[in-house]
Amino acid sequence: MTQAGWRVHIQRKGSATKGISETQKKRNRRIATPRARVEHVFGALAQMGGKLVRCMGIVRVDFALLLKAATYNLKRLVFLKEGGLAAF
User: Fold this and answer.
1) Best label site of 17, 20, 58, 83, fewest CB within 10 Å?
2) Rounded Cα distance, 61 and 65, in Å
3) Does a structural domain hold residue 76?
């Protein structure tokens, strides 16, 4: 994996008798921060029905999923605007 420029991003876990070191805690934090950002998006899309679409044909399914993603982006934009944050 490291030959292709990829690194393993698996978090470390301590046992019941022995915890993890400070270095491992920092590493877990580095891994968890971007993961949480991505997982929130997938969680929101799962609440909107996930990848389940009731239509026939790959073009229609693709369009329905595109609409779900656009809806999530619009909801996120409204949330940011109401919070007074610059969205872009």
Assistant:
1) 17
2) 6
3) yes
